[in-house]
Specification:
By secondary structure, the chain is an all-alpha fold. The chain has 14 helices and no strands. It starts with 6 loop residues before the first helix and ends in a 19-residue tail after the last helix.
């Protein structure tokens, strides 16, 4: 995620390292901090569109895109093998959490828990869009924990009942994780083209907006068969395309100035030395430093 200026992304990269460890951490976070089980319990993967939304926005998204493009080394074949080594255990863990979800649901007041599930998705979307806002929000694990406490219903406890998993729910959970793995694989295969044509920070902000739309279907505000989140993500992908021709070397005349006909090689003299202190003073007085949209370190304005 080194090409992304998001402070949370950079902090995570410094904590766990780069490459495979970082990819495994990013893709497994929804399973570890309770986001994926919360979505399972809220019925977010109850349809094909829901599976695609959870897979692309929760397991995939801008973090996975940035890791694959910026931090994974090796050929495309080596990257594909690495993603599969991370993705297969990820799908197995997703199946396990989907299997125990119905048992947990029996002990919860689901209408109350669904509100907390929507709240945790909104918090993640806000953290993804702005690190400044994210500093004032609780972590997803804290929100999920509060949701479990607030929605706990002791009347649903039945210790004598055998554990029975819902095969269809397990299959949908695995499919959602599989969509995220497929997204990572497609990024690895298209990596050489994406690196020069996609603005990662722009895609990150747009995917945060798409993720913020997802709770609307969880809360029943919009119908689950209306793919608004996927539509926002598709528009984001188009807007994130930023082809540039900066890789082409500049012409000699542009780089060094045209040499007059009949001029000698020594015509291009070294420039006069520049006083560094004087140059900095000139920059401080430059009115262009207040140009909208330009921030320190070339960071996007929403950071």
């Amino acid at each position: 995620m080194s090409t992304s200026r998001h402070p949370i992304a950079l902090r995570l990269e410094r904590s766990v390292g780069e490459g495979t460890k970082l990819l495994a951490t990013v893709m497994a976070l929804p399973l570890v901090d309770g986001i994926f089980p919360a979505l399972i319990l809220a019925g977010a993967v109850g349809s094909v569109l829901g599976i695609l939304e959870v897979g692309l926005l929760v397991f995939g998204g801008s973090a996975t895109l940035a890791v694959v493009l910026a931090d994974m080394e090796g050929t495309r074949r080596e990257q594909v093998v690495t993603i599969l080594l991370v993705g297969i255990p990820l799908m197995a863990l997703a199946a396990l959490e989907a299997a125990i979800a119905p048992t947990i649901a029996e002990m919860l007041n689901m209408p109350v828990f669904e509100r907390f599930a929507a709240l945790v998705i909104l918090a993640i979307a806000a953290k993804t869009a702005s690190a400044t806002v994210g500093e004032y929000l609780p972590s997803p694990g804290v929100i999920v924990g509060l949701g479990l406490i607030a929605s706990f219903d002791p009347s649903g406890l039945a210790f004598g009942d055998p554990f029975v998993a819902d095969p269809m729910l397990v299959a949908r959970g695995v499919a959602a994780a599989g969509v995220g793995v497929g997204f990572a694989l497609s990024v690895a295969l298209l990596g050489p083209w994406l690196r020069g044509n996609v603005d990662i920070d722009r895609f990150r902000f747009g995917s945060a907006v798409a993720l913020g739309v997802l709770p609307l279907s969880i809360l029943g505000i919009i119908q689950t068969n209306v793919p608004i989140a996927l539509a926002v993500l598709a528009i984001t992908s188009l807007l994130a395309l930023d082809p540039s021709d900066n890789d082409d070397p500049a012409p000699v005349e542009t780089a060094t100035g045209a040499v007059p006909d009949g001029g000698e090689a020594d015509a291009a003299e070294d420039p006069e030395p520049v006083d560094v202190d004087e140059a900095y003073e000139d920059n401080d007085d430059d009115d262009s430093r207040g140009t909208p949209g330009v921030t320190d370190g070339d960071r996007a304005p929403w950071l």
